[in-house]
Amino acid sequence: MNTVEPTNVLENALQQLNDAAALLDLEPAIHAKLSKPKRALIVSVPTRMDDGHFEVFWGYRVQHNMDRGPCKGGIRYHPSVTLDEVTALAMWMTWKCAVVNIPYGGAKGGVICDPAQMSEGEIERMTRRFVAELVEIIGPDQDIPAPDVNTNERTMGWLMDTYSMQVGHSVPAVVTGKPIAIGGSLGRSQATGRGVALVAREALATHGMAVEGARMVVQGFGKVGGAFAELIEGLGAAVIGVSDVSGGIYNAAGLDIGELTRHVIETGYVEGFPAGEPITNEELLALECDVLVPAALENVFTADNAGAVRARMIVEGANGPTTPEADRIFADRGIFVAPDILANAGGVTVSYFEWCQGLQAYFWTEDEVNERLEEIMVRAFGEVYAESQSRGVDMRAAATAVAVGRVAEAVRVRGIYP
Length: 418
Description:
Among the domains are: about 35-170, 3-Layer(aba) Sandwich (Rossmann fold), CATH 3.40.50; about 190-345, Rossmann fold, CATH 3.40.50. It is about 45% helix and about 20% strand. The chain has 14 helices and twelve strands.
């Protein structure tokens, strides 16, 4: 069973908590409570493959904290999923929900598998068995999953259906990011990318810069990076570089994101796009630009490559893309970093909207969703920026301090049972 994290992502998350605890002079009991998840479930997921044989996958669901409300967090399918990674992501979800001040704690789930090597039927059967193993710990009042890496609205539809079949009635609010036809929210598919674009706009404003004409580089052209690129281009920015698993492309005058999206839909990758020159992922991260958006996986920026970054600011679309060592290098070099728990909180914010709509069976227009998302993201950015300025710390320390402070206050008010 693979439970060893090779990239120390949990150590990174715990170090960020320790730094916030020191900044807040947090009580030792609360610090200790927040250092460990409330619950971590490991399950085997036997799945019948198309040729009739069975594969048994390992699956995880970690619930970090419930002091402010039910848990919230995505489910990812990836060969590199580990228990430490899922635990770190669950902790970051707690801070993410708190920093935008929505009434959730954090959770995360994952299955160790390679969905690129599986058929749709195999993925569906694996998903349904995994959900059946989670029925006792998920639900609209305790833990609400959502899409993440290599999962999507169809996966969430299977999750909602499986859970509903287990309890004997339809429960749309058990999951968010599901299809509109079964209670999904308008605006959800672009919500994370929209939140990143809003934070980039606000971050540029603190530096006296407008979005129009700003040069953007995006690592990762999936649900987050692709939506961000489309939306930021619509605000007048030039997206000069993009990469995915196939490599990167660059055009100093700006890529046509609509044409690039069509190319990716047709071919599956950004590689081969005729209106851009090919570059490596390493070269992309070192491009001179105003805003660099990592929108892929964790630990993109390390001590080895942080010194080569030539962006004026980094807005983190991915979870945990910057190691503590890279953070220190960016701070020493004066590179402004809008951290993940703030910058990519648009997805969980609209997931909260979807949950509310599901509980009430009352649905909002897309304009209402986008307006409320903008209001929350702009307010959260302002609160974190003010904390950063008043304490004289970077934005990550400020965001974590705001979030940990809110969760800690909930623990104080509730007390620690018994």
